[in-house]
Amino acid sequence: xxxxxxxxxxxxxxxxxxxxxxxxxxxxxxxxxxxxxxxxxxxxxxxxxxxxxxxxxxxxxxxxxxxxxxxxxxxxxxxxxxxxxxxxxxx
Length: 91
Prior knowledge:
This protein has 91 residues and is an alpha+beta fold. It has helices spanning 23-34, 36-39, 67-90, and strands spanning 8-15, 47-54, 57-64.
């Protein structure tokens, strides 16, 4: 079986409750923790990502050369985000 390389993209949004007073600080901390991973991009890599913080929403956009690369990037961000939020909720 031959897999065709087809560019693909995805977007993940994490919503924080606005009525929770800790939501904004947690969102900012998670954003700061995830952002460095988006700055190391080279044309040699198989995916590219961007991250945005808008009030209480973190948005991560990922573009990749193929589905396995997209899946790997998304899984990495999901794991990192969960680790950030779990750690911050314990503080």
